[in-house]
Design goal:
This protein is mainly alpha-helical. It has two domains: 6-66, Winged helix-like DNA-binding domain superfamily/Winged helix DNA-binding domain (Arc Repressor Mutant, subunit A, Orthogonal Bundle); 88-123. It has six helices and two strands; from the N terminus they run H-H-H-E-E-H-H-H. A two-stranded antiparallel sheet has the order 1-2. Strand 1 (53-58) and strand 2 form a beta hairpin. Helix 1 crosses helix 3 and helix 2 crosses helix 3 (37-49). The longest helix is centred in the last third of the chain and has 18 residues, at 105-122.
Amino acid sequence: MIKLSAKEEEVMEHIWQLGECTPRDVFMLYEEPRPLINGIQNAFQSLERKGYLAHRQQGRGYVYWPIVEKRAYGRTKLGTFIDRYFDGSYLSVVSEFVSEEKLSEAELMQFLADQMNKREGTL
């Protein structure tokens, strides 16, 4: 996936929230002072060029929808984050979560047991 700018990510978050939408729909989600509508339209065009959106004509304008799922984008971002800050070690991330009490040992053990049960069920 092609990397998004902070502004593109922000607009994409709104698009994922709305599903099919127009730049004006996204514009209306912003609180005052709103960004310029032209900036949002430019972000839509950039997101489409980068392969994140598709569109169809509706009246005089266009309706867009996401073609990259939020979760898929998140996985890419997570991988980059882990590579950058944890030397690519997913185990280090899990260890950090446990040591910071973001994930209890009991939750981790339950997760592992569930995964083992799923594997045994598919064999």
